[in-house]
Design a protein that fits this description.
The chain is an alpha+beta fold. It is 24% helix and 43% strand. The chain has four helices and eight strands; from the N terminus they run ααβββαββαβββ.
């Protein structure tokens, strides 16, 4: 089961706002894909939240684009920022990336983002959103959302 960003944001607006703010705090983030042999590959990436979707744009024939064409599963982690404070916590999105080839959809993205040409464009289908943060300097709190389920919150000392 997968979900769009818009559906997630409608179901869990507070968590969605926090996640989007964390991604918006920095330009570059980390994308994990699967290589042909199944081992993980991490790559830097810029992420866009537009029109109720999370978009991944990348250079033509980049290894991450080729990985996603072969196996659409991904994990995306927001840049934690400088130092160790990680204001807002650590946030991750997992799911599947669907390549967008429709000229009208790519033109709309191009108009909004102005990426270097040519480019690959993927929209995401979410299977998980996770936020981990420290509360009251005592608890490690993890919030986990999966499509069709409410946010599950775990606290540890």
């Amino acid at each position: 089961m997968a979900s769009t960003w818009a559906a997630f944001a409608a179901a869990e607006p507070d968590l969605a706002t926090t996640v989007e703010q964390r991604f918006g705090a920095y330009t570059h983030h980390v994308l994990a894909t699967l290589r042909r042999d199944g081992s993980p590959r991490t790559s830097g990436i810029e992420v866009r939240f537009l029109d109720g979707e999370v978009w991944l744009g990348m250079m033509p024939d980049s290894l991450k684009a080729l990985d996603l064409r072969r196996d659409p599963r991904f994990a995306l982690q927001a840049n934690p920022g400088e130092g160790t404070t990680m204001g807002g916590g650590d946030v991750r999105i997992g799911g599947r990336a669907v390549e967008v080839t429709d000229p009208a959809a790519k033109a709309a993205y191009r108009k909004e983002v102005e990426p270097p040409e040519p480019f690959h464009l993927f929209r995401t289908e979410l299977t998980e959103v996770v936020r981990t943060y420290v509360e009251d300097e005592t608890y490690l709190v993890t919030q986990v959302w999966k499509p069709g389920e409410p946010v599950r919150t775990l606290k540890r000392t």
